[in-house]
Amino acid sequence: MDFMPKHSDNTVVEDGFEVIGVNPIPKNERNMSPWKFFIFWAMASGAALVPIAGKELYNMGLIYAIIAIVIALLIGLIPAGLISDMGRQIPVPSLVVARKTYGYMTSGAYSLIFTFLNLGYFGLNDSVGAVILSSLTHSPILYWYIIMGAIQILLVLLGAKWLEYFFRYTAPLLVISFGILTYFLFTTYTINVSNLLNPIGKYTWGGALDFLLGFSILAWTYKISTQSRFGRPFSGRENKKTRAGYFVASPLGIMLPVLLMGIVGFFGNSLNPGSGWNIAVLSFPGVSGIDRIIIIIAAILLALSLIHPNAMNLYPATADLLTSIQPLFGKSVHEKWAQPVATLLLGIGGIILAIEGILARISGFIDILEAIIFPFTFILIFDWFKNLRHTTRIGDYYKIPRNIKNNIKFGALIPASIGTVIAIFGIGPYDYIFAYFPKALFGSFIGLLLYIVIYYIRPDRVQLSEKQNDYDRFNMEAEDSQ
């Protein structure tokens, strides 16, 4: 069954709301540049919660903490870059592409799981913003849970185009407000930097990298194509500088705020271990008058910056849910309203999670998130790079299979499940290796290796011609279909 509407009918925005859902983005709407990619993801990543990285890495000391962040970037750079290119080559979310890797039903099940994981992140950010604004205004925190959530819902209803505008034009406010708080942090408090350079307490490299990958780059990776599908179409004829720019823009945008804001959170945590990372609620003793007003304004702006990442938690959550339920609509004209309605309902759900106190469960939440997302993403990327980009057209992703074989592809599901089990439970007597190597990443590699073995021994594997110009051929087909 083919339920994808014709491309000419794919309206991105109607009555002010984005209604494209998870259908392909028309070519005339695909114009984001690498610089816009970078700003978009820097704003999505950078917010008032991010300095908590300094708290989580505090025992490592500043030098090792910075090294850990750089290593996390290097680990996630290629997966994030490939997913970014995927969105430019075929303008649909990655979970739509996963229909061919994992099977239609399995991809739908993953989509539902990822919907709730994104809502969890929505709740985390909404909580931090509400805590800051409630503290600064001495008003009930419940009000701020609702106000922050409502603003985020409105932005996501407007869609990716307006999100990009909002991120780009509010970027200076975030940079200035964080810079102001950083200035007052170092001028108000006495911080002995030399004592913080080396390890301060117990830590493991594996645990630190697990946190960073789940908190930042690999947790964001599968979502990147949700935005990169609005980038200029991939072409084998584009110059190497442009191609490289698109490839690295998203991962660099994600990790730069983690580095800079994490360092500031590290110093803040040294003043008050456990909570000092949240520099927006520091007391700054002795500061009064106009300086106090400037600090309060900067803290409010920093709190409002949480709208950025939360919009990019709610937006993919909507895409994930729509990926799962899209077959219910068939070719109904009412499908266009699925995106606004889903955004509204999911946003309300995220607010409820914030009220219920998900912030207190951040470590356990991130462990679950990375255990599921990492193996799924690694297998999807391999299948895309090695197979799907050569052999599939856009319309293939919208055909509901009539047999169980293509609805549940055990050749991908079983390796991904094994990787998830290892990421959660470890490997028993050999768990000591996770003091040095991230457990979730290890599970992902095991799952990927199992999938590669299955991929090469399965009898129905498509044999590709070595002379095939994959990028050019794929893009000509994609452009012809549009």
Automatic annotation (TrEMBL):
The keyword Transmembrane helix applies. It comes from the Archaea. Belongs to the purine-cytosine permease (2.A.39) family. GO terms for cellular component: plasma membrane. InterPro entries: CodB (IPR030191), Pur-cyt_permease (IPR001248). This is Allantoin permease. The chain crosses the membrane at residues 37-54, 60-82, 102-122, 142-160, 172-191, 203-223, 244-267, 279-304, 341-362, 368-385, 406-427, 433-457. It is found in: Membrane. It is a multi-pass membrane protein. GO terms for molecular function: cytosine transmembrane transporter activity. The lineage of its organism: Archaea, Methanobacteriati, Thermoplasmatota, Thermoplasmata, Thermoplasmatales. Keywords: Membrane, Transmembrane, Transmembrane helix.
